[in-house]
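Example for tutorial group B:
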């Protein structure tokens, strides 16, 4: 039986040594060696602004959630009703938000009030107030003025229904020099209020890059085997069309111009894989979800003599190098 990787890793007083033994990538090393070392700052606006990312992906023929409209100034807030006219559901999100903050999911409308994904109702004034907060930078990086995107609400693949609470799961892949090095599914929970945000209590589930099957799972930095709300086992789920999805993540490297990149993809039940956003500073919890350290994987990519131009070839290299091995 595999040992508890998290408990072994954090067993004091040997924390620093165990970090090295497990090849864990720490925040300082991530920032100095990989973010600053491989991510030119001139490309940050392409990934920090979701509107620019969306347009960049569309130009490259990559599927993204359909954009219904953009609200850029307070004067345009009343235009929302026209933008969503005839639509039963939609999503409002800040263009430069992070961590899922400021995202408002509307699932329907009853008696002139909008129904949120959590069941709560909002009137027109509540929606307008939320839009105003977005425009004034309440949810944006650095607090700068922002834009509100109004877009298609993703209907997640039925595969995830037994292991997700209300919200839409997403697949985060770390791509280094064009080669995927690790991936996980982030599963919303009641504690995370239906958001796929690990810091708010979502479940992080590692994915075997070779097979596309889920492996380990963590929630609030603790190893789990079942979804905390549904009680359904998490390991062994087969991600549909995995090879295509991994190739898609590798292809996103070519668009962003960043050497160290997080790619977030959702699986829509009707439209298939949709790219949500890129991240120039992807978090490190993906190591916990996979029960492994990233540093060794990044080093192995750095040691490659040549990296192919073809994203599908780069995805195959990832599968050859990083197939899941059960912790000993």
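The residue assignment follows.
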């Amino acid at each position: 039986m595999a040992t508890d990787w998290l408990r072994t890793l954090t067993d004091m007083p040997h924390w620093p040594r165990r970090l090295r033994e497990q090849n864990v990538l720490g925040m300082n090393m991530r920032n100095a060696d990989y973010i600053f070392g491989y991510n030119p700052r001139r490309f940050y606006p392409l990934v920090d602004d979701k509107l620019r990312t969306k347009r960049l992906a569309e130009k490259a023929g990559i599927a993204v959630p359909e954009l219904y409209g953009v609200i850029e100034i307070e004067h345009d807030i009343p235009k929302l009703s026209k933008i969503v006219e005839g639509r039963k559901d939609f999503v409002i999100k800040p263009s430069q938000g992070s961590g899922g903050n400021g995202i408002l999911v509307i699932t329907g409308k009853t008696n002139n009030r909008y129904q949120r994904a959590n069941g709560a109702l909002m009137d027109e004034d509540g929606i307008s107030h939320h839009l105003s907060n977005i425009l004034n930078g309440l949810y944006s990086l650095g607090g700068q003025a922002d834009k509100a995107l109004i877009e298609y609400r993703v209907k997640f693949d039925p595969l995830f229904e037994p292991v997700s609470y209300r919200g839409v799961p997403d697949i985060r892949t770390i791509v280094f020099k064009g080669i995927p090095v690790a991936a996980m599914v982030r599963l919303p929970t009641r504690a995370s209020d239906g958001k796929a945000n690990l810091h708010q209590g979502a479940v992080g589930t590692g994915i075997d890059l070779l097979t596309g099957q889920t492996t380990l799972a963590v929630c609030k930095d603790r190893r789990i085997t079942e979804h905390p709300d549904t009680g359904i086992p998490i390991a062994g789920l087969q991600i549909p069309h995995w090879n295509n999805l991994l190739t898609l993540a590798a292809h996103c490297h070519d668009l962003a111009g960043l050497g160290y990149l997080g790619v977030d993809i959702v699986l829509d039940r009707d439209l298939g894989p949709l790219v949500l956003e890129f991240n120039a500073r992807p978090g490190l919890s993906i190591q916990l979800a996979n029960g492994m350290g990233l540093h060794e994987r990044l080093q192995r990519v750095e040691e490659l003599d040549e990296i192919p131009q073809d994203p599908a070839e780069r995805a195959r290299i990832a599968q050859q190098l990083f197939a899941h091995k059960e912790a000993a």
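The first strand starts at residue 67 and ends at 71. Compare this with the pattern of hydrophobic and polar residues in the output above.
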